């Protein structure tokens, strides 16, 4: 079955161009012009991937992304914008966008990003029978995408969960911020380093018994972060 893609773009010629190109790649494509229409389409039939313009009339792309993430956390979000500042990119990633493309862009670049996003979704589905990970009171269920600490559920955002799961799948191995950006966010740009730090801080606040003296997610000075599999003596 073809992957389903929803395009949310208010520029009519660009919307038509994207729809035509992605349909030619074999995807089932729906296209809408506003955030309100996007939310209606998402409720009617959730897609696998959303190509979402940031600057929409009325409800902007950031708000659409927030609402989408709350209702459909597994949908991949590729955000488009005419803005180029680092702050705009970071904000988009903070609210749950999986990837970011700045206008103007080539159609080949966009198609490559879409393919990469769909490959990542497929990989997630292929690990659907993975057993829960358990570490001294912390339980991480990759299939149900849920976390418990001392038997109590911990509510994480999509990106917080993906970051925690990646680190826990590679216990005791230090990762640089750039490595985490590549593996969890799928981007390769050091300017996003503070996004990693802010997610680590929020994760610690939610899963650590004492966030100021973390048991699970440790800072490796001069390198980055690691997941500590067991208490050190």
TrEMBL record:
GO terms for molecular function: phosphorelay response regulator activity; transcription cis-regulatory region binding. Residues 4-118 form the Response regulatory domain. It comes from the Bacteria. InterPro entries: CheY-like_superfamily, OmpR/PhoB-type_DNA-bd, Sig_transdc_resp-reg_receiver, WalR-like, WH-like_DNA-bd_sf. Keywords: DNA-binding, Phosphoprotein, Transcription, Transcription regulation, Two-component regulatory system. One of its GO terms (biological process) is regulation of DNA-templated transcription. SMART domains: REC, Trans_reg_C. Pfam families: Response_reg (PF00072), Trans_reg_C (PF00486). Signal peptide: none annotated. Residues 130-229 form the OmpR/PhoB-type domain. One of its GO terms (cellular component) is cytosol. Gene3D superfamilies: 3.40.50.2300, 6.10.250.690, Winged helix-like DNA-binding domain superfamily/Winged helix DNA-binding domain. CDD domains: REC_OmpR, trans_reg_C. The modification 4-aspartylphosphate is found at residue 53. Residues 130-229 bind DNA. This protein is a positive regulator for the phosphate regulon. Transcription of this operon is positively regulated by PhoB and PhoR when phosphate is limited. This is Phosphate regulon transcriptional regulatory protein PhoB. It comes from Rhodothermus marinus (strain ATCC 43812 / DSM 4252 / R-10) (Rhodothermus obamensis). The lineage of its organism: Bacteria, Pseudomonadati, Rhodothermota, Rhodothermia, Rhodothermales.
């Amino acid at each position: 079955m073809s992957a389903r893609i929803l395009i949310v773009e208010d520029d009519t010629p660009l919307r038509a161009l994207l729809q035509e190109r992605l349909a030619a790649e074999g995807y089932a494509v729906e296209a809408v012009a506003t955030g309100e229409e996007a939310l209606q389409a998402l409720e009617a039939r959730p897609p696998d991937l959303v190509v979402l313009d940031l600057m929409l009339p009325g409800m902007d792309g950031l708000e659409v992304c927030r609402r989408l993430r709350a209702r459909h956390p597994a949908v991949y979000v590729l955000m488009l914008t005419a803005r180029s500042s680092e702050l705009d990119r970071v904000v988009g990633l903070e609210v749950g966008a999986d990837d970011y493309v700045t206008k103007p862009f080539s159609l080949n670049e966009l198609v490559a990003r879409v393919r990469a996003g769909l490959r990542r979704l497929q990989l997630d589905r292929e690990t659907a029978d993975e057993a829960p990970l358990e570490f001294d009171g912390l339980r991480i269920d990759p299939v149900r995408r849920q976390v418990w600490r001392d038997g109590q559920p911990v509510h994480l955002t999509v990106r917080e969960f993906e970051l925690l799961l990646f680190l826990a799948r590679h216990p005791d191995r230090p990762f640089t911020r750039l490595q985490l950006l590549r593996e969890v966010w799928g981007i390769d740009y050091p300017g996003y380093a503070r996004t990693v730090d802010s997610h680590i801080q929020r994760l610690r606040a939610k899963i650590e018994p004492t966030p100021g003296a973390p048991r699970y997610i440790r800072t490796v000075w001069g390198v980055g972060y690691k997941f500590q599999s067991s208490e050190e003596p």
